[in-house]
Amino acid sequence: MTSSHAPHRTTSPHTLRRTVEAYWASADARDWAAFGETLADGVVYEMPQSRERIRGKDRFLQFNREYPGDWRVRVLRIVAEGDEAVSWIQVTQGLDQMFAVNLFTADEKGRIKAITDFWPEPYEPPFGREHLTERY
Question: Assuming Cys at both sites, which of 10, 48, 56, 112 could form a disulfide with 82, CB separation 3.0 to 4.6 Å?
Fold first, then answer.
């Protein structure tokens, strides 16, 4: 029996991991040509905290080129499975530091076609649970 549907091909976790590593390394180096090579033409970038979305490689490259400040990125962890990956990063700008979690989806060529960045803000825990937790 022959199926008329081609099997769904996903990017290998190894390929996507290398793509995400290249994405962060080129962003940190401000190598926008190399950064652009990691992206699919129709990439969609979302930031849920600000409810912003950028569609398309050219607009996303411009967004990154114009982003203010002399920030640096350090990758703390990347986990990849199939055509999806997650990274945990530390961004420093001067004495300020922020952490973010980034979700990536790859296209069939291993380029990034979707990114969702979560930029949580630190906060003090509510009173009354210190007997269950430890601060670090």
Answer: 10
